[in-house]
Amino acid sequence: MAQCLGLYGHALLQGIVDTRGNVHIIEANCRFGGASTLALAAGLDSIYWFFLEASGQSLEGHPFVRSTHTKRLVKQPVERIFDLDYGSVAVEPLFEISCQ
What we know:
By secondary structure, this protein is an alpha+beta fold.
């Protein structure tokens, strides 16, 4: 969808699918999304990849390496990303980002 609209880089598209299966875009934001911190923690460093692409560099030496742990993002005034193993949550957060 973003390619059809000519968007490049980070963009969030929100849409509604009608009863006929047609997608109607209701909002487009060219920015990093609320779950970007979770994507980074899981190994999806798309922010860095975007900067490499924008500067004309190849992404070949920068593959996606998925985290060995399942992650969960919990939205609060402070975001915390935890490693989840076998249903248990790590006691210490991997990192925190203040949203205040």
